[in-house]
Amino acid sequence: MIPKSFLQELDSLVVACSIAGLLKLQHIFRLTTDNYKLEVKVVKRIANATDANAFLRSLESRERESLKYVVLDCSADTARKIIVNHVQDIYMGRRNYHFLLTSLVMDEYLNSQVLEFGAINVTGFRILQPASLDFKTFVPAWQSLDPNRWPGAGTQYISAESALMYDVAKVILDAYSRLLKRNPDIFRNNFRRGEVYNNGTRGIDCRRAPVLPWEHGERITRIFKKTSIQGLTGNLSFNELGYRANFSIDVVEMTVTSKMVKIAEWSDHTNLTMVPPIRKRVPESQIIFENKTYIVTSILEEPYLMKKKTEPGVNLDGNESFEGYCKDLADLIADNLKFSYVLKLVNDSNYGGLDSNSSVGWNGMVGELISKVSRHPSLP
């Protein structure tokens, strides 16, 4: 669920969700008060990524310049497809969109990289604790498992759902180990000759009214409540009502390099706390431009880049054969950073678009940049 305090900065929301998402939205509305109101522009129930992208495209045609906070309550795979399709659609805006992924789908991308996530604002939640000793110990063992026998294993990442199931098993094992250590014969009278006994009676009648609790149920419940161990999702402990306690969820966002950084932390005892994001920057001393030659690709478009007009019989070669704003800007940057460059026109005279016939999926300047034919684009 989205913490209430996290939504206080948002003026309005666009929600694309499944049926379960509608129930979550209803819960959010219950949190609103006279002093805190949330405007939801539109809610769309989606069946797949195509539905969501068509919905956003129709919204874009009506309100192209408005700021849009888009809440996606769907699976990790569907969320990825929606964002990738959005970024690759040249008719859709980017700067005025902010995607908020609910649930714990960001854990799916912990050790994978979706390049398109770096091109747009994406915020989400993460419960896995990759820096913990338990997680670091678990990953090598998880990677060594046969994925044919253990679906999802054999890789360096684990989904939040699988991690929570692992932690549940760890809690059960810990609780029963402590119970049997205290009283090794506690279940001796409950299992006899392949039969289960409860309070001296064979079998358990699930239809009895009122229900007859298992004779050890209360003791086992007390054992569970005293659990205090570490798991893949952090601290595993419970309060007197049996709810999980003293745990936290990270609020993360994607950087321009499609890396995940923590910007806030929510816990059941401190609520939302903002955290200064730690972004790794290359020290200036390590950025060396001198004595290097870069290929800069561009396209003819007045007044940004033009072929220089010359007197009859005068031939100009290389960079000197061009003029315009892009050429002047490239000269200033090269002079300031002490490097050389070669200005070339894009081979197919295109800015860049999706191209199924291209080996890199794009044509034009974008395609040359991806395929490293050029190092930098110079866009009019």
From TrEMBL:
- How does the UniProt record describe the way this protein sits in the membrane? Multi-pass membrane protein
Supply the alphabetized keyword list: Glycoprotein, Ion channel, Ion transport, Ligand-gated ion channel, Membrane, Receptor, Transmembrane, Transmembrane helix, Transport
Q: Where in the cell is it found?
A: Membrane
Q: What is its main location?
A: membrane
Molecular function via GO: ligand-gated monoatomic ion channel activity
* Ionotropic glutamate receptor L-glutamate and glycine-binding domain residues: 303-371
Asked whether the keyword Glycoprotein is assigned, the reply is yes
Cite a single Pfam family from the UniProt record: ANF_receptor
Among InterPro entries, the record links this protein to: ANF_lig-bd_rcpt, Glu/Gly-bd, Peripla_BP_I
Q: Name it.
A: Glutamate receptor 1
Query: Which species is listed as the source?
Result: Caerostris darwini
Annotated gene = GluRIA
